[in-house]
From TrEMBL:
The organism's taxonomic lineage, starting at the top: Bacteria, Bacillati, Bacillota, Bacilli, Bacillales
Family of the protein in this entry: Belongs to the succinate dehydrogenase/fumarate reductase iron-sulfur protein family.
UniProt keyword 4Fe-4S present: yes
Domain of life: Bacteria
Name of the protein in question: succinate dehydrogenase
Gene that specifies this protein: sdhB
Sequence ranges assigned to domain 4Fe-4S ferredoxin-type in this UniProt record: 147-178
Amino acid sequence: MSETAQKIHLIIKRQKDANSDPYTEEFLIPYRPNMNIISALIEIQRNPVNAKGETTTPVVWESVCLEEVCGACSMVINGKPRQACSTLIDKISQPIHLAPLTTFPVIRDLRVDRQRMFDALKRVKAWVPIDGTYDLGAGPRMPEKTRQWAYELSKCMTCGCCLEACPNVNAKSKFIGPAAISQVRLFNAHPTGAMHKEERLEALMGEGGITSCGNSQNCVQVCPKGIPLTTSIAQVNRQVTLQSFRNFFG
């Protein structure tokens, strides 16, 4: 079959707004080599006609960087949470099923509200506090051995794939999720960030903290950046245990 005759078959789970019932709509769009999911959605945006030949509304999704850095284009692709920008049409089977992440509230179609993740980062103080009122000079250096694994943790783009895959993260659970726990490990290892190490660990001792992890290990399997999330959870769990002993013995 020639390239001009090939079609990409998309079955998309859609929703008009946060309070509407979801429905599915199918699309057939022209195939081009090296297309990703985003380029397929752009084709629908250019010509919003479904597989029945009916004019419809363009599919709504979210994207920013288009190079797997921002994490905004996360969606469920053929049953797996993935980044739409780095998922190539040629590498997945058809028909291609697209759906929004189920862990987060749907805004419209494939766009979801990931505020839950950002609130989790605030809860664990996932930043390095710096007083900018006067020059403090060069900060302490991180040992090279630590820097190497810490850099891997810094690749987290808050995409939400790990929360989508985790069976302990849902609308009825307050579990903070693997991404925020891994960021606790990152900032606790920073020479300056360690000043708030105790506060971060205390945050993970509360409801929805690290004890809510069921150790399913799904998170590390779906992380687009290959972050060792289960290793981070284990390391932070040890830190939390030691902190609980310090608290108990005063």
